[in-house]
Structures are given as structure tokens and as C-alpha cells.
Fold this sequence. Notes:
By secondary structure, the protein is mainly β. It has helices at residues 3-15, 23-36; strands at residues 41-42, 55-59, 64-67, 73-78, 84-89, 97-102, 106-111, 119-122, 128-133, 139-144, 148-153, 159-164, 170-175, 181-186, 191-196, 203-209, 216-221, 227-232, 236-241, 247-252, 258-263, 269-274, 278-283, 289-294, 301-306, 312-317, 321-326, 332-337, 343-348.
Amino acid sequence: MKPASLLSISAVWSKFGIKSRLLPLICLIFSGALFARGASAALPIADNAPALPALVSAGSDHLLKRWDTSGKYVGSLGSPDDTVNAIGFLPGSHGDILVSISKSGTLALWDVRSPGPAHSKLAHPGGAFALAMQMNGALIVTGGADQHIRLWNAAGERCLGDIKAHDSAVRALALSRDGSRLVSGGADSNIRFWKVKTGGSGLEYLTTIPAHDATVTALALSNDDEMAASVSEDGYLKTWHIEGGSLQVRVRVSNRAVLCVSYSPDGKTLATGDAEGKIKLWNAVTGAPMLTFSTAGERSTIALIWTKDGKMLITGGEDKNLRYWNTATGQQIAAIAAHDGAVRSVALVP
């Protein structure tokens, strides 16, 4: 704020008996109120930064926020009933429908064209933790604290199939690109492979792998659907052959929990985010380390997603920021103080 403006405002406050020495505090409170209502604070952006991807972020502040290609906040889709654990655009909706699952167990569909209350229903008593969708948009799959996996029609209105899938909470799901195979991960430390029945009417059990020594926190499938990657609270990244379930890569990522994992679009690289706040890139075939990006402080990285060209990685976590990274150099391109709480999930606008 310019000195002249500060003096002018100070004069106004003095008419109401407010001393000028309180002005900095008042401004701070006012700016905080703006942020709580959805404004964003831009952190340093690299010189000659490329256009950023348009996206939606979900925070533990119970807000879904939209961001444009300059990193500017452009509006809220609404306020979910609780902390959102995962979001994703419904394939085939042309970016018009966003699907979310929340800590309350709610499955919700949001119309981006007319932000407001979503169509929602209780999907999992005790909490919904995992979300996956068929590439043709015909099927939504959820997993939750009730140990069940449920399959829903594209409108999220009708449950097509329901199965008790794990001996404890279902924490992660990944669907093959053709929608015929599903991989699930649980708090029971196991990974299970399933065949999706025609029309999404249910799941056919295939096999179980005792994959980790603690909760499986996230899963990802390679674009050719030949490999599955899993990460866990035990600090490990592992990859598995879909056919046969044999282990290919076993890498110690962190002494703390690893919370997210994703294959690059070309399938050659895996990205992980952990509870130490580090984002790491790994050779997907050998498990060799490639790059490490570090956020300020040891605040958990909870969400990450690649851009379609693989040149950028967007991350979010407990530091409340959205961060954009150059995947070739590991340099931070931009950062946005996005939420008044942890960033839980990120979805790119198609």
C-alpha cells in the first residue's frame, strides 16, 4: 500500500476514534478475511514462466476452487459438506462435471457451468477415501472406511455394484484405461486385483498381494495398463506386473509415509509425494532416483498430477499451496497460496 493511501485511510479511521497504530493490524485482518472468502495470494513466479494449466483444487477448508492459466483464482464451485479427499473431472463431460468424495462419505457431482449445490449422496458411512472413473465416463468407482468398493452410474445416482473388498478401509483405487481391470489398496496393507463385470454390475475377484507393511495410500497404473505402482505409510514405492502380480521395483522413498504417486504421460517416470514435503521422480523401470523437489519445511505433499505433455507437475499439501514444477529441471515455476487448509486433491481442466 502506498504511503498516501495509508495516510488517507488513517484519517478515516481517526474519525471513528481508531488510532493509526492499529492500521497494520486492521489491514492484516481485512486481507485475511478476503483470503477466507476465496481470494488467493500469489507467491513468486519464475521469469518467462509458461502458461499454467487451468485446474480445480480441493482443500480441507471445505472449498473447491478454480484457477486459470495465469494462476489466478476465478471462482468457487461450492462448499462440500466436509473435507474432500479426492476430485476428478468425469470423462466425456468436456470438463463440465467434477466428481468429489469426502471425509463424510459423500459422493458429489458438481456442474462447473453453474456453480452451486451439487448432486450428492452418502456413498460410504464413515468416510470415502478412494475414487476412480472409467475413461468413457460410464462408471464411477469409490472406496471407503466401510471396507467396500461401490460402482455407480455416471450420474452418481445409482449403485450398480457393491462388494466388501478389504479387511479394513479401502484407501486407493486405479482403473485400467479400458475400464476392465481395477486395482484396490487398503489399510490392511494389501493390494487386490479385480475384473469389472459388464455394465459395472460388480467385481470379479482375481488375486491379493500382501504388498506393504502399512496402509496403502495411493495407486497408479501405467498408460499401457501393464504395471501398477503402489505407495504406503511404510515409506516404500513398489511396482507390480498386472499379469501375475510379480514385483518389479521396490524403493525406499522416505522414512515417513508416502502419500501420492503418479506415472508420467509417457510411462517412463514415476512421481511420489511424501510426508516430509518432498516430491521425487523415479525411473519407472529400474526405480533409479532422477530428481527431488523440496517444498519449504517438512509439510506433507498430499496431491500431485502431471500435465498432459509431462513437462510440468502440480502438487498440493499441508503447506496450503499449489506448486507448479518444471519436471526437466526440478525448478519451481509458480506457487499459489490456494487454501486456508491443506490442499487435498487437484484436477486438471480437460
